[in-house]
Design goal:
alpha/beta
Length: 279
Amino acid sequence: MSKVMLIVIDGLGLEAARRHLGVMEGLVEAGEARLWTMRAVLPSLSRPAYESILTGLPPARHGITSNWMVRRSSQTSIFTVARAHGRGTGAAAYSWFAELANGVPFDPVADREQDHADAPIQHGRYYVLDPFPDPELYWQADLLVRRHAPDLMLVHPMGCDYAGHEHGGESLAYRRAAALTDDCLAQLVPGWRAAGYRIIVTADHGMSADGRHGGTDAEERLVPFYLLDAPQGGVAAEEADQLSVAPTVLTLMGLPPAPTMTAPPLGSEASMTADAPEA
């Protein structure tokens, strides 16, 4: 049974990932990771996508179709399945994940640090303001790993999304935000792999040139899905569905996906088809 670290880089589109995540692309090139082009759910907004990533359900089914639908999830998620099997959980993430998993209302002072043995996310460190620095978030994640070694760990930086909304998805600021998260990954991923984590790096949605997302354009919907230490490295030829994230996480952990998680898990022998041409 493996430990899994799910890194969701908010607002990082596929093209930006392939251009600026040098450490991930290097692992793909070396055969130590596999990359899928993943199509995000609709609407391609953060809170609906967060819920879909955690539950494997589309927004049309889980019912969270707007960023301003603030409520606790009523669906089976990767965290509830992990806890039902006695596995430890943690998150360093935006407060919306705490609202979905552990409940509302979220108090920006009292709920910033959560350590509750009976909660879906047992150990959480959360931020509320979008400009929260990515390095601080990654360091908080590493602290939770060192202290608690959760079997399922969520890491969720906001820097790319914030830069994209402020300056656009083709801006220098957006490119610099992507490069910064690449540097954070370069510093911490080797240690997390050595600690026994199977690592996934993906995103909730992409970003348009004018700083928007939510619609159907490829720049808003196409995101990367990197799986480190997959049975086969390289670039997958087939496009992946964002609904596959939840069953992939649980399968990697050696846990059964919930019956509602019907998309196929990625990284199994069945999903190892011919490589696509390198971009």
